Amino acid sequence: MPDVSPFIHAAPGARLARVVAAVLVSLLAVGLSAVPAAAAGYTLTASGTTTTTATVAKSLSVTYKYNGRVQKRAKVDLQRYSNRSWVKVKTLTTSATGKASSSVKPSATTKYRFKTSRATSSTLTVTVVPGSWAIGGSGYGHGVGMPQWGAYQMAREGRSAAQILGYYYPGATVGTTANPRTSVDVQVLGRSDDPATTSLSLSAGSWRLLDGGGAQLATGTSARKISIARTSSGVTAQITENGAVRQTISARPTLGLEWTGTQYWEPTGTAGTVTVSGAQGSYRHGRLRISSPGSRPNVVNQVVINDEYLYGLDEMASLWGTSGYGGATALQAQAIVARNYAILAKTAGLKSSCDCHLYDDTRSQNYVGWKKEGGEAGATWRAAVDATRQDGAGTVTVVRNTSGGIAETPYFAASGRGGSYSGTTNNQDAFGTAAQSHLQHVSDPWSARAPGNPYTSWTGVLSQAKAKSVFKLKWVSSVKVTARYSSGQIKTMQAVSTGGSTRTLTKTAEAWRTELGFRGSWAHTVTARK
């Protein structure tokens, strides 16, 4: 008869061992049927943007499935890697679609994952890049020629205008030229952001309105106001008094306004100042020419270069020339270089866009007319201008280049320092123009020690968004200055992406200032910020 059990003939001890082993195998098989081996079939799929800044939260998501079927209302832990171990951040509950998400805001690059008892997701590395860089800098302006704060300090230390100019424009000479009392046309209204209409009013005395040929169209006193508008045929004028219309002038290509107390009409008459609504200045001297080369009325003041124009130029503080400040010769140096600028602009001819030689703002020189001449310490500024005129000889003081011509004399607010360098810059380094011997780098210890100079130190901010735009990188992890001009201004900057790509850019000093939007391009330090 066959055996009914494999254990029937075994010794008692052996039979017991085999029975226990069989029971254990049976129990293990039952357990494996209840919980699949290695949680087979369960998956956690993680996703999310993995680069951010420390101040911007990012969302990490997970989808939980079993054999392709979403797991609803399941608990999933979000973990981060810290100190060589995984630490739970929070527990999430999946939605009806099997998904869960959470915002994270790490202060440094951090690894994350999702985990349940049955599955673990792949690792997501959230790379944290600087939100911005603080650029520690100094100085203000393009850096070529005479720094105004440096000139002021040189004046305080006893230097003459000629010495100041001779230092900052090396190789140039201070001399004279004939004073022909030539006028220059300065646009005071007509930019694209200026108003579409304007009004003219006189504080005292009388005015007269002329057409382009010099024929008188209207006249009045300070009680009457002139409203100017533009049409397709030219400019129109409406004369009002106490709100009532007194006269209407049809469209003309050009209108002119003259007033008493000027060289153009009754010089010994009552002098007043003309206000042009929307303009930055008011005007005691000159004659207004009104035309329409663009989409709005264009108002130009015609003033004599060597006195009327310079009297109204607001480029240096008049107070610097008073006894308490000791900067009178700096004001004289300013008057001379401003004269050079105006002479060259006159020589270049009228600009078609504005029907003018000069703008009244920093595109040329900051001209405000009577607001400067009649303002605080205005008499001091007038005296500085007059000190650069030799009326008896019929000459004025100018700066001449090495060829004997009227020199280009750019100027700016204050020199700065960058790294171990400081001072003014070569014109070719700032502007990319052909080198001029009198526009080359000189050290400038005076700007830094001028009392009250607000540009000895400043901090500019280069944002992550701006850095990405400048360097054409998806994300920027680091930025540094790798080369400087002799002045200390930025020449080359280098940026590195999160992926390790390096982008190196070289620009002129002024291009960097414009690109970065800083006061100057003298940069001392670059510090990453959150």
Total strand segments: 35
Sheet with the most strands? 7 strands, mixed
What's the assembly state of these chains? Answer: single chain
Averaged pLDDT: 92
Q: Flag low-confidence runs.
A: 1-12, 19-38
Number of helices: 11
Based on helices, strands and strand pairing, what is the structural class?
alpha+beta
Approximately what portion of the residues adopt beta-strand conformation?
35-45%
How are the strands ordered across the major sheet? Answer: 16-15-20-23-24-13-25
Describe the 3D structure.
By secondary structure, the protein is an alpha+beta fold. It has eleven helices and 35 strands. Strands 16-15-20-23-24-13-25 form a seven-stranded mixed sheet. Strand 18 and strand 19 form a beta hairpin.
Give a quick precis of the structure.
Helix content is 20%, strand content 37%. The chain is α+β, with helices and mostly antiparallel strands and 530 residues long. A hairpin with a 4-residue loop joins β15 (206-211) and β16.
Could you outline the blueprint of secondary structure elements for this entry?
Elements: H1 12-34, E1 42-48, E2 51-53, E3 58-66, E4 69-70, E5 75-82, E6 85-93, E7 99-104, E8 110-115, E9 124-129, E10 132-138, E11 146-147, H2 148-156, H3 161-168, E12 173-178, E13 183-189, E14 198-202, E15 206-211, E16 216-221, E17 224-231, E18 234-241, E19 244-252, E20 255-259, E21 274-276, E22 282-283, E23 287-291, E24 298-304, H4 305-311, H5 328-348, E25 358-359, H6 370-373, H7 378-386, E26 389-390, E27 395-400, E28 411-412, E29 417-418, E30 421-422, H8 427-431, H9 445-449, E31 458-463, H10 464-471, E32 476-484, E33 490-497, E34 502-506, H11 509-516, E35 522-529
Parallel strand pairs: 2-9, 11-28, 13-25
Antiparallel strand pairs: 1-3, 3-4, 3-7, 5-6, 5-8, 8-9, 10-31, 10-35, 12-27, 13-24, 14-17, 14-21, 15-16, 15-20, 17-18, 18-19, 20-23, 21-22, 23-24, 26-27, 29-30, 32-33, 33-34
